[in-house]
Design a protein that fits this description.
Layout: H1 4-11, H2 15-26, H3 31-42, H4 49-66, E1 70-73, H5 81-84, E2 92-97, E3 106-111, H6 117-132, E4 136-139, H7 145-155, E5 160-163, H8 177-186, E6 188-191, H9 203-213, E7 217-221, H10 228-238, E8 242-246, H11 256-263, E9 267-268, H12 272-279, E10 308-309, H13 310-317, H14 321-333, E11 337-340, E12 344-347
Parallel strand pairs: 3-4, 3-7, 4-5, 5-6, 7-8, 8-9
Antiparallel strand pairs: 1-2, 2-6, 10-12, 11-12
Helix pairs in contact: 1-3, 1-4, 6-7, 7-8, 9-10
Amino acid sequence: MTALVDFVALSLLPPWCWLRAADPLRAGEHPGILVRRLIADHWPDEPGKHSSLYTRAAAALARAAAGSLIAIPWSDPAYPVALTTIPDPPPVLWARGSVDALAAPAVAIVGSRAGSEYALAVAERLAADLAACGVAVVSGLARGVDSAAHRGALSGNGVTIAVLGSGVDVMYPPEHNGLARDIAVRGAVISELVPGTPPQPYLFPLRNRIISGLVRAVVVIEAGDKSGSLITARCALEQGRDVLAVPGNVLSGRNRGAHALLRDGAKIVESADDILEELGMSRRGEPVRPASPTIDPVLARLTPGEPLNLDAIAERSGLTAARLLPRLFELELEGLVRRVGGGRFVRIDRTC
């Protein structure tokens, strides 16, 4: 039986171990066995590492329980399927708020921490319009564009998800404590880091792959040449997500990074309609697709009762994971497929 503590212990290994862990987990290997093997391979001269790792894992779970935090391991059906497709998904997600928020179709809005009034206004408007259409808005709860996007989504009475570069019980920047509480009411504040982890500079670029991994598209607003938002955009491209950008003032030099994305083929965003069109959704948040064939081509490749991961379904259907996920989510909403642990889907037998 898989214990949550095994996944937490795995998550406490260095991040480069997660890349080595992804394929074995997809193949169904027990995380406890995986932890033992990784320790034996990389720390053979540290006999006490295994016990110390599990002591820290137990302490993290106790801290989470005391703070009413939610641990979502890889094996949990609530773990976002989109995230299982990235090269190095976190073994555990920690959350404050609604786990259901992680199942909504999502778009990331990212940009400068020192955003201009124009950038903040655009971020807030786009987020509010997307939220009103049933699209979850994902960002990093940083100062500037990120926080404007979260506030916009909340003003649109929608769902927003904040991805932290610290434990979910350690707020950075500290002035966003109130905003984080508001987000947790309808959305979620999440992190791959165990509770109590303080913010460190190297953790913020690391979490950007989660921001992009959760979503179907990343929208960049006002990013300079060396903006962290460009890291998120690069992660999105590597993960097969769409990248879009908002044009800005060419005189200020504040948006050179986003303009470079546009020159490289990113779609221009002037309104939420541009983003919805890229996602194949209508203003009401409903999927836009041609008249239904006699049987859905994705559904036709699923056998009732046989759980398959995205790689297997992609191979059968000929679609990339990024294009396959939206259709699987639609089939799930229609009650035709169901998510099971480990990022797998199973077709529901409707014959009886």
